Amino acid sequence: MAKAGFFVCLVIVIMDVAAGILSIQAEITKDKVTRYMSPKRLKCQEPNDQAFKLGLAAATLLALSHVTANLLGACMCICCTEKLETSSANRQSWFGCLIVSWIVVAVGFPALVMGMVENSKSKGSCQAFHHHFLFVGGVLCFVHGLLSVAFYVSATVSFQKEISHGLELDP
Asked: Which tops the pLDDT comparison, 152 or 110?
């Protein structure tokens, strides 16, 4: 069972790292088609289909890794929230990682989608500010991977402590 959990955690980390790399690559690809208008130093951006596809792949991988991480242990964590105040530090860190991972995905996924939408426009746009949504989403993919590892480790330690002490798992 522990080996299966480790394998699933490894798959989640691989998906998060791949999503982060793809989104940063999409940002680099997008920046290659940016040209500068010299009089006002406005940045004009042409739509980039390759950056759109990379951003779409990154958003899909982030969503899949988050769903997988929540299926791995979030259901058990939600079931024990009524006793969270009296639970161990491991279980509290488990719950904290769950909440923070939801916040990271709530910011990272829309950032990836907004970066994708920037590249799906039918014609180029000139703007005074250049948003780096794909880069921010990529960094948050890496953060989500770290949180998933912390989530898995704290859940495993919490359950092993309860089993070794002969305690029943809270329903």
From this structure: 110
Each residue of 96-106: pLDDT tens digit?
888 898 999 99
CA-CA distance, 81 to 127, in Å (whole number)? 47
Give the burial class of 157: count Cβ atoms within 10 A of its Cβ; 0-12 exposed, 13-18 middle, 19 or more buried. middle
Q: How many CB atoms lie within 10 A of CB 133?
A: 22
Of 133, 7, 152, nearest in space to 94 by CA: 152
Distance CA 68, CA 83 (A): 25
Alpha helices in 33-132 (DSSP H): 49-79, 89-118
Sheet holding 34-37, edge to edge: 34-37, 42-45, 125-127
User: Can you give the C-alpha Rg of the chain in angstroms?
Assistant: 20
Higher pLDDT, 40 or 32: 32
